[in-house]
Design brief:
single chain; alpha/beta; 434 Repressor (Amino-terminal Domain); Rossmann fold; 3 domains; 4-stranded parallel beta sheet; 13 helices; 12 strands; 44% helix; 14% strand; disordered C terminus
């Protein structure tokens, strides 16, 4: 069905297109009677304004772009909820795109958003992204962009993050405090900043507490989705390589759940034989048996905060104000469950 145009409304009422346009915009030089008649006719004909054409004329848009590595992911789904809920309150629509951890796809998606003249962009970088010319180009075009979760520290834009290094330190320290002496780490890919920081936090906690860092105890989960299967694979490798490990800090809950599942099949008792801690606090981490100790990462709050910062920058840009990028750091929390259970919880320092 062909969309109804201003011309269709004008022809129906026998008035000019200019009068119809002014009436719909509530111009005072059009009589109240005509304005009412035009609005009623537009509703009857199911007229929908062409928002893209309006954007071209006004150079303003009520749409923002969101690029995330994965949509079907507990953490990112919560981020999306936070962004969409608060964008809607401000009258903004959100275009959601999934990069699949691909640098090339991420670049194409940014081009798509810019071609559609979005008012601003929210992005969590793909694991493959190691160059940032495509991000710099957007900043040079004065389009507000806010990074969250997986970010690039060298890019001069606003960011919403957690202290991954400190959170990983606390996770590893928890294992040490409950008596673990030989602690492995299933880390993420080498490139993302959050994966790097979690590894560094793990390593520092060992050194600060008098334990030797052993690179052979670090297993890389380098598949794009940091998956359940990788947790199973690395659990088997760990048992083949080391029979003295008594604790593991794992980069994400999904990998940790995969590891716990495989350990169960192989007759390893969690937490008696090996204590396991994950990262993110997925829903599944609380229902798996044994339930998973983890670091709570506030996804909804991160989405809400990222949108609020982007909205501030959009408003400043419209007012020709100077936008000063800022980094907002959100708190995390250690959630202790069965996978690190001790006989005497009072012994935890």
């Amino acid at each position: 069905m062909t969309p109804v145009t201003l011309k269709d409304i004008a022809n129906t009422l026998g008035i000019s297109i200019t009068t119809v346009s002014k009436a719909l915009k509530d111009y005072p030089d059009v009589s109240k009677k005509t304005r009412k008649l035009v609005r009623e006719t537009a509703e009857t004909l199911n007229y929908k304004p062409n928002s893209f054409a309006v954007n071209l004329r006004t150079k303003q848009s009520k749409t923002i772009g969101l690029i995330i590595p994965e949509i079907v992911h507990h953490f990112f789904s919560n981020v999306i909820k936070g962004i969409v809920a608060h964008a809607e309150k401000k009258g903004y629509l959100v275009i959601i795109l999934q990069s699949n951890e691909s640098f090339e796809l991420e670049k194409k998606q940014l081009d798509l958003l810019m071609n559609n003249r979005v008012a601003g962009i929210l992005i969590s970088l793909a694991n493959e992204t190691g160059k940032f010319d495509h991000i710099e180009a957007i900043i040079e075009q004065k389009t507000p962009i806010v990074m969250f979760d997986k970010i690039a520290k060298i890019i001069n834009c606003s960011k919403v993050v957690i202290d991954d290094r400190s959170a990983a330190y606390n996770a590893t320290k928890h294992l040490i405090d409950i008596g673990c002496n030989r602690i492995a780490h299933f880390r993420g890919p080498l490139l993302p900043q959050n994966s790097i920081d979690r590894f560094l936090g793990y390593k520092k906690a060992l050194i600060d507490n008098g334990l030797q860092y052993d690179s052979s105890l670090v297993y890389i989960c380098d598949c794009g989705d940091n998956s359940f299967e990788e947790g199973k694979i690395n659990a088997r490798k760990l048992l083949e390589d080391h029979n003295d490990v008594d604790g593991i800090f794992i980069n994400t809950d999904l990998v940790a759940i995969g590891a716990i599942t495989e350990f169960g099949k192989l007759g390893v008792n969690i937490p008696h034989d090996i204590k396991v801690i994950g990262f993110s606090n997925w829903f599944m981490s609380s229902v798996i048996s044994p339930s998973l100790t983890t670091i709570d990462q506030p996804g909804y709050l991160m989405g809400k905060t990222a949108f609020k910062q982007l909205f501030k920058e959009i408003k400043k840009l419209k007012s020709n104000e100077i936008v000063k990028p800022k980094t907002i750091e959100l708190d995390t929390a250690l959630i202790i469950r069965e996978s690190t259970k001790t006989n005497n919880l009072s012994e935890i320092k």
